[in-house]
C-alpha cells in the first residue's frame, strides 16, 4: 500500500470505530479457541500494529510486516518483536510452529492467495489455528479497495475453496459486520454513482457518529463465539491443518 495509507492507519487505529470494534470482535473469537497457556501467536501483515496489544493478551506474540514504515511504527509500540517478511515465500521462521497465526485483512493484498494460505498453514502446530478475515463481496468493490491495493474481495464460499486448495480444513466460516451492512452498502453504491474515486472508508467521522458506529459494530462480539452471520461486509474463518 502507499505510505500515506499506513500513516492514516497509524493515526486512526486506536479510535476509529471500525478498528476499535473489530478488535473486540476478534478478541472474543480468539477467547473461544481455548489456546494453550503461553500460546505462540503470530500476526502476519501487522501493518502499523493496531492489533498487537489485543493479541498479546493471549500469549507470546510475534509480528511480521513487509512495509518498512509500517513495521517501524508497529515496533515503536514496544508490544512484541516485529520482523520483516512477506507471504508467500519470505517467511523468516524455521521450525517455529505457532498455536495461532492471524491474517487480518491481509489475504486480499496478496496476488497468489492460495500459495499464501499454504505457507501460513505450514506455520501451525498440529492443533494450531489460522484466523483469517477478508473483505466480502466483489460487488462491493470501491475506491477504498483501489487505494488499499486489494486484488479481490471474497465470499465465504470462495474463501473456503481457496482454503481447500491450500490443503487446509475449515473449522468455521461466515460473515461479520452485519448490523451495519445495509448502511455500508448504500454508501458504497452512492460513491460509485457519484464517481468519488478518492474516497476511503477509513476517514474519521465526527466523535458522536464514531461512538455510535463503534457501539453498533461491537455488539457483534456477543455473537462470534457462538455463530457467524450469513452475510456482512467481512468474512471470518477459523482454520486448521487437514488431517
Helix and strand run: HHEHEHEEHEHHEHHHE
Runs in which pLDDT lies below 50 for 5 or more consecutive residues are none
Which whole number gives the mean pLDDT? 92
Query: Main sheet: which strands, in order across?
Result: 3-2-1-4-5-7-6
| Approximate strand percentage | 15-25%
What is the CATH superfamily classification? Vaccinia Virus protein VP39
At the first level of CATH, what is the class?
Answer: Alpha Beta
What is the overall shape?
A: globular
| Distance from first to last alpha carbon | 36 Å
CATH architecture: 3-Layer(aba) Sandwich
What is the tally of beta strands?
7
- How many domain units? 1
Measured on Cα atoms, how large is the radius of gyration?
17 Å
User: What composes the largest sheet?
Assistant: 7 strands, mixed
Number of H- or I-type helical stretches: 10
Per CATH, what is the topology? Rossmann fold
Helix proportion range: 25-40%
What structural category do the secondary elements indicate? alpha/beta
Describe the fold and architecture:
There is one protein chain. This protein has helices spanning 3-12, 17-31, 52-56, 68-76, 113-121, 143-147, 156-165, 181-193, 207-218, 221-224, and strands at 40-44, 60-65, 82-84, 98-104, 124-135, 168-176, 234-241. The protein is of the alpha/beta class. The protein has one domain: Rossmann fold (3-Layer(aba) Sandwich), CATH 3.40.50. It has a seven-stranded mixed beta sheet, with helices on both faces. Helix 2 (17-31) packs parallel to helix 9. The longest helix has 15 residues, at 17-31. The radius of gyration is 17 Å and the shape is globular.
Amino acid at each position: 500500500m502507499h505510505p500515506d495509507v499506513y500513516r492514516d492507519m497509524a493515526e486512526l487505529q486506536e479510535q476509529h470505530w471500525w478498528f476499535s470494534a473489530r478488535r473486540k470482535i476478534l478478541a472474543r473469537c480468539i477467547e473461544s479457541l481455548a489456546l494453550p497457556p503461553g500460546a505462540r501467536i503470530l500476526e502476519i501483515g501487522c501493518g502499523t500494529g493496531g492489533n498487537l496489544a489485543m493479541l498479546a493478551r493471549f500469549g507470546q506474540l510475534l509480528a511480521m510486516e513487509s512495509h518498512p514504515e509500517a513495521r517501524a511504527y508497529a515496533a515503536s509500540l514496544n508490544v512484541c518483536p516485529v520482523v520483516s517478511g512477506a507471504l508467500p515465500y519470505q517467511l523468516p521462521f524455521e521450525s517455529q510452529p505457532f498455536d495461532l497465526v492471524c491474517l487480518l485483512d491481509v489475504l486480499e493484498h496478496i496476488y497468489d492467495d492460495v500459495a499464501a494460505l499454504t505457507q501460513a498453514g505450514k506455520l501451525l502446530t498440529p492443533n494450531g489455528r489460522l484466523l483469517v478475515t477478508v473483505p466480502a463481496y466483489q460487488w462491493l468493490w470501491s475506491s477504498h479497495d483501489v487505494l488499499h491495493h486489494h486484488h479481490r474481495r471474497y465470499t465465504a464460499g470462495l474463501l473456503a475453496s481457496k482454503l481447500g486448495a491450500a490443503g487446509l480444513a475449515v473449522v468455521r466460516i461466515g460473515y461479520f459486520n452485519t448490523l451495519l451492512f445495509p448502511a455500508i452498502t448504500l454508501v458504497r453504491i452512492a460513491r460509485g454513482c457519484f464517481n468519488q474515486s478518492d474516497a476511503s472508508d477509513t476517514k474519521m467521522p465526527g466523535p458522536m457518529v464514531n461512538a455510535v458506529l463503534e457501539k453498533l459494530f461491537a455488539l457483534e462480539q456477543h455473537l462470534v463465539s457462538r455463530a457467524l452471520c450469513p452475510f456482512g461486509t467481512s468474512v471470518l474463518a477459523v482454520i486448521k491443518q487437514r488431517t
